[in-house]
């Protein structure tokens, strides 16, 4: 993808190698599904039984590829930050509503939080010492009749309706990814009606990745103090995947 952004942040940070977890260090990592082969032995060897079962259940090759890269990337980055072999990380996926193992994954016994998302040709991971959420979406995916009525507040719908022709899709996608990121950070997911979530918040920021995509990252508003300023470091993780899998530098 020729127009991918290699490094940006709402408060500028240098693109650099991983560092120890800070009290409020937010990183956003991105990669592409084709950074690994479709049956990459190295990547699949990192996954646990639950992840492998889910991988096998996905019917479409493109979905399997995004899932494989998303979870391999998470294990590599988290393992590096926590000084634990990637394949030995243990996750708790307890659902907050039914306690089954299909909820948001957390690393057992460690304060490092993370969130994953993927769409089209992008895979995104956010890591932070506070509860975090990230979401990426193809802008055209939100262009369907009735979207505003099920996803936006009354004020947001009015703002979108007032935009010049051709700008509505990007605004809708921006609102949607912000809401998803905020809901993920809070741990509620789509259990909460997105029409009740206000997308404009100090605890969420847009991430400029590529033309045709919207992306946002958020910190749990309940853990966001009045004096905090949301900033993040954006890191291209493609070379990490390729190097660790032996497919190139």
UniProtKB/TrEMBL annotation:
BP GO terms, sorted: lysine biosynthetic process via aminoadipic acid
Naturally occurring in which organism (per UniProt): Nakamurella antarctica
Domain of life the protein comes from: Bacteria
Name listed for the protein in its UniProt record: 4'-phosphopantetheinyl transferase superfamily protein
Pfam families in the cross-refs: ACPS
Coiled-coil portions: none
GO cellular component terms attached to this protein's record: cytosol
One Gene Ontology MF term: holo-[acyl-carrier-protein] synthase activity
Homology family: Belongs to the P-Pant transferase superfamily. Gsp/Sfp/HetI/AcpT family.
